[in-house]
Each structure stands twice: as structure tokens, then as C-alpha cells.
Amino acid sequence: MEQVSFQLGKVKLIECPRDAMQGLRQFIPTEVKISYLNQLLKVGFHTIDFGSFVSPKAIPQLKDSPEVIRGIDPSLLAGNRLLAIVANRRGAVSACEFDEIKYLGYPFSISETFQVRNTNATIEESMERLKVIRDLAFESGKEMVVYLSMGFGNPYGDPWNAEILSHWTSNLHKEGIRILMLSDTIGVAKPESISYIFANVIPEYSDIEFGAHFHTGPHNWKEKVEAAFLAGCNRFDSAIKGFGGCPMAKDDLTGNMATENLLYFFDHQEVDLSLNRKEFNKALLLASDVFPQDARE
């Protein structure tokens, strides 16, 4: 099984307009999405999590992902990587038709209740789906990014502890998964648990690239980033202005980690993110026009 190579110590920022948009009720026009994505591609993020190939009934906001990717300015794709979320074989087949997509993302929950709620499958069924998607990805020259949903706890009463997380990490590792995003799906992660988990899994699985997908509020974002970074995490998902969250988790969305907060944090850590700040500021301004009012309330 091909292994993913990555640079230890180099911080990677993954901008997630897909996660910012997916739960919105008001449909963002396709041409607006394309314009926003083209601007984000000018910034220099490691990866853009741009869309999904799931059922339009589940995520109607992203039903136009094929049209969006066809509308991207090809000249902006050099040096950029696109990621699309898939939840089953059909979605993976569709995503694999696009050479522009580098990564297939799959949400795998260690909470049985949330796995059913999110993908209409048990954990056992989800693992079988993951294997199928993995094979399609490798055959198409793509890499898989698996999101360990409820990675820091869950509200559904399912058993959760660090040993369960380690168990599923081990299983995914055996299946050839080499990029794992530990997801604070509902924003419950505490600095102590973040530090403990990353400090233990990163040394144990040296050939896995672990990342953090935090949902958070404006009052506690910094402690989460700091805990993960100091424990050795160098890959972070975020969305400009903290828009979005997981619509399958609960009725009230807990927003994404705001990208501008990550930039602030890493600037003070003197980490060179190699981003074009002028283009980022343009994207920051454009976001206010792209996202409808209900995203900013």
C-alpha cells in the first residue's frame, strides 16, 4: 500500500469552504462559489476542502460540486490541492472522475450513534465503505483523508475514551490510511484531552499524518490550537471567519476554527506559513459577500 509522504514540523493549513457552506439553508449560487474558490486558490493554502460528492438530499448546498470544480480557473491549480468529501462508493466514483481532486475525505465516527446519523451506516458498515473508497482512491492516484468524528468525546452516551480512539486509529492504520484528522465535531474538546491524545498517537504512528479539525467558539479557540500544536500536531483545518460546522451533529452549529485566528496564532509562534497575505485579505473581504446573513448570525 502506498504511503503518504509529509514534512514533519511544517505547519499545513487546510481551508474548508465546504464545511463552511454545507449546513447553510440559503443556497449560494454556483458562480459565487467558483469566484470564492478561485480567490482562495491564490492564497497558498496547503489544501482546499472545496466540496462533496454526497447525496443532494443530505447536503443540498453542495449539489453543484461537479459544476464548481469545472468552473475553477485551471491556471490556479498548479501547486494547489483539492479535497472532496465522499460517503459511499457512488460518491467516490464521481469524485475520482476529476483529476483536479487530490484527496478523498471520509467521515469515520468512533460514535456509533453519530456514524448512523452522519452516513446512515453502522461503524462496521462504515469500515467496509471506507475500504471500497480507499481502493478507488489508490486506483485513481488519489489519497484518502479520514476524519475521526467525535475524536474528543460525544454527546450521545456512546462509550468514549482514549483507548477507543487508539483502537480505531490502529484499525485504520492497518487499512493503509495515512492521514487522520481528529475531529472535535461538537466543540467539546478540552486542552488536557487534546494534549494527551496527540502526544500519545503521534509518536506511536510515525507514518500517519495527524491533523486537527476543531469546531469551536470565539472564546476558546486559542487553547485548543496551542494544545494540539505543542503536542506535535502540524496540520489544521479551518474556515475563514469561523463559518460553518457539522449540520449532522446537532441543531445549533458550533463554528469552525477561524482561519484568521490560526494565522494570528502561528504568526506569534514565528511559524512561516508561506501564505500570500494580500490575497488572503481579499478572500476575507469576499467572504462577507459570499456567505448569506444566516451564516453570520
Give a description of the structure.
Helices cover 40% and strands 16% of the residues. The chain is an alpha/beta fold and 297 residues long. The protein has one domain: Aldolase class I (TIM Barrel, Alpha-Beta Barrel), CATH 3.20.20.70. It has an eight-stranded parallel sheet with strand order 7-6-5-4-3-2-1-8. α4 (89-96) links the parallel β3 (82-86) and β4. It is globular and about 45 Å long.
Task: Provide a quick synopsis of the model.
Helices cover 40% and strands 16% of the residues. By secondary structure, it is of the alpha/beta class.
CATH architecture: Alpha-Beta Barrel
Distance between the termini: 46 Å
Q: How much helix is in the residues? A: 25-40%
Our count of domains comes out at 1
DSSP strand count: 8
Question: For the record, what CATH class applies?
Answer: Alpha Beta
The total of helices stands at 11
Oligomerization status of the protein chains = single chain
Given helix and strand content, the structural type is alpha/beta
Q: Main attributes?
A:
single chain; TIM Barrel; 8-stranded parallel beta sheet; 297 residues; 40% helix; 8 strands; alpha/beta; globular
